[in-house]
Structures are given as structure tokens and as C-alpha cells.
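Input C-alpha cells:
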């Protein structure tokens, strides 16, 4: 029936804001344990090599998480807001790439600078998530 109707009108099942939030909160909860372990590993890194390995692991977690979020259908009326939030997560991934490069180069100053930028992006992402109602990602 939807195919026939689609010839004349748009016929798509839109995800509700509540369903989207529920799905995202579940992904956040599943990812949080990994992120906690990553944070602990990074805090306890005793060498540049350990920092680099921890950041590489953290980046893969964020990349996977970002990809899973991108695959979810978003409520159409909130697409702009959610795209802004996803852009902050993508920004964290890019900053983590830069952090890996700084660690590989042994550039402590850049490591500290990029770490501050990544923390700022994470804070903004958390704020956007919380404002939207995604409590699982706003830690």
C-alpha cells in the first residue's frame, strides 16, 4: 500500500524523538564502559607510546559510536540539532587523530593543546545531547 501511496505523497515511517532517544541512550550505555576504560588507560599512561596506544583505542571507540549513530534514523524535525551533535562527536574523532600524531611526534605541547580542544568538544557534545534529552551520553 505504501508503494502506491508513495507515488502521490511521501510515505515514510518517521522515528519519534522518544524512540530515537531510547536507541541512542542504549548505544551510549553500551559504549560508556569502553570509554571509561579508555579514560583510565589514558590517565595512567606512563609514556608517549602508551598515550598513543590509548588514544588510538579511544578513537576507534568514538569512530564506531559515531558510525552507529549515523545509521540510526533521526526524527526529521530535529535533524539540524542532531547533525550539530554528531558534528561534535566527529570533531572529537578528528582531534583524537591529531592527538595520535602529536603523541607519535612526542610533541607534549601539542598533546596538551589537542587534549584541551577534545575536552571542549566533548563538553559541547554532552551539552547538546543533554539539551535534546539524551541523558545516557551526557555524563
Amino acid at each position: 500500500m505504501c508503494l502506491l501511496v508513495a507515488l502521490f505523497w511521501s510515505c515514510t515511517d518517521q522515528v519519534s524523538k522518544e524512540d530515537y532517544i531510547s536507541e541512542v541512550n542504549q548505544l551510549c550505555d553500551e559504549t560508556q564502559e569502553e570509554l571509561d576504560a579508555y579514560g583510565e588507560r589514558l590517565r595512567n599512561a606512563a609514556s608517549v607510546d602508551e598515550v598513543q596506544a590509548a588514544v588510538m583505542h579511544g578513537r576507534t571507540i568514538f569512530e564506531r559510536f559515531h558510525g552507529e549513530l549515523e545509521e540510526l534514523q533521526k526524527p526529521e524535525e530535529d535533524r539540524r540539532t542532531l547533525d550539530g551533535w554528531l558534528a561534535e562527536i566527529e570533531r572529537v574523532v578528528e582531534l583524537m587523530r591529531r592527538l595520535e600524531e602529536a603523541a607519535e611526534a612526542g610533541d607534549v605541547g601539542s598533546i596538551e593543546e589537542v587534549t584541551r580542544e577534545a575536552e571542549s568538544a566533548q563538553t559541547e557534545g554532552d551539552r547538546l545531547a543533554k539539551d535534546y534529552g539524551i541523558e545516557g551520553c551526557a555524563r
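Confidence is low (pLDDT under 50) at residues 1-10. The radius of gyration is 18 Å.
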